[in-house]
Specification:
heterodimer, A: mainly alpha, globular, B: mainly alpha, 2 domains, about 65% helix
């Protein structure tokens, strides 16, 4: 495991930017900024319109680090797992679970909590608990 | 106009993830590691994001309609059903394993880490499977 430094100010500032993004999307297209829903609807079946807008949103997401590096001159520091079986399994679970539960950290965790949605509160408590338990088992039971 | 604003929204979202450090799976996993190298940053990201969204939604939703769509499209579901427990539980296990949720994973695509390039296609496959199963079961 790689220790990281607690960064409250940049965390708050970055969080506020995410909030501005969510408000802008609601003001412009009237939709929740739920990444799992936006990404999943880029795949077939296509039931409603809005494909171009969703693709533009994801293109913006991908452009984020590029603009950050160009504007700040700083690199984006990342420690990403390398074990193929782990990363593929995790990807399948994240993709399946977020669509099955109608939302992920953004849709339920940010937009849903901001709307005081009881469903989103339940979903957020469940995925937080499951994630904390998983990290505990991986790092302190198996890895301990 | 609408498409350009949706690009701008995605860009701000991606910038927020990078600025906050949430594009780094190590930082996310350390938030989840209460018994180890705990890093509380993610709670501050959530607090900042929820506070701004709550205030902004209040302003925006008091308007008659969005700028580029005929009406607001808000989730109508109310039921706390089994899917709302099973889905987030499965998602949480995957999130803990890799430290990636959908936003940071997509934002990281251009950074080209091998782990990201394994995770994202698997995530899209999982999403497609869930949509297919949901359609089949009505």
């Amino acid at each position: 495991m790689t220790p990281t430094v607690f960064t409250p100010w940049s965390a708050l500032a970055g969080g506020a930017l995410i909030g501005v993004a969510a408000v802008l999307l609601m003001a412009a297209s009237g939709r929740i900024a739920g990444i799992s829903g936006i990404a999943a609807r880029l795949l077939p079946p296509y039931r409603d319109g809005g494909f171009a807008g969703r693709l533009a949103f994801v293109a913006g997401l991908v452009a984020g680090p590029v603009v950050y590096v160009a504007a700040s001159g700083l690199p984006v520091v990342q420690t990403v797992g390398t074990a193929p079986l782990l990363m593929v399994t995790a990807g399948l679970l994240v993709g399946f679970g977020s669509v099955w539960g109608n939302g992920c950290t953004s849709g339920h965790g940010v937009c849903g909590l901001a709307r005081l949605s009881p469903r989103s509160l339940v979903a957020t408590l469940v995925f937080m608990t499951a994630a904390v338990a998983t990290v505990f088992v991986v790092r302190h039971v198996i890895g301990g | 106009m609408g498409v350009a604003l949706q690009f701008l929204s995605g860009l701000l979202f991606g910038l927020g993830l990078v600025v906050s450090g949430m594009a780094d799976p190590a930082k996310v996993q350390n938030f989840l590691d209460l018994a180890g190298t705990w890093d509380p940053s993610l709670a501050f990201v959530m607090a900042g994001a929820v506070a701004v969204t709550m205030a902004g939604y209040r302003l925006v939703l008091s308007r008659p309609r969005p700028w580029c769509a005929p009406s607001f499209d808000l989730p109508a579901a109310r039921a706390i059903d089994r899917r709302l427990i099973v889905g987030p539980a499965v998602f949480g296990v995957g999130w803990g394993l890799a430290g990636f949720c959908p936003g940071p994973a997509l934002t990281s695509l251009g950074l080209g880490a091998p782990g990201t390039l394994m995770f994202v296609p698997a995530m899209l496959a999982g999403m497609a499977l869930a949509r297919w199963l949901a359609t089949r079961n009505g």
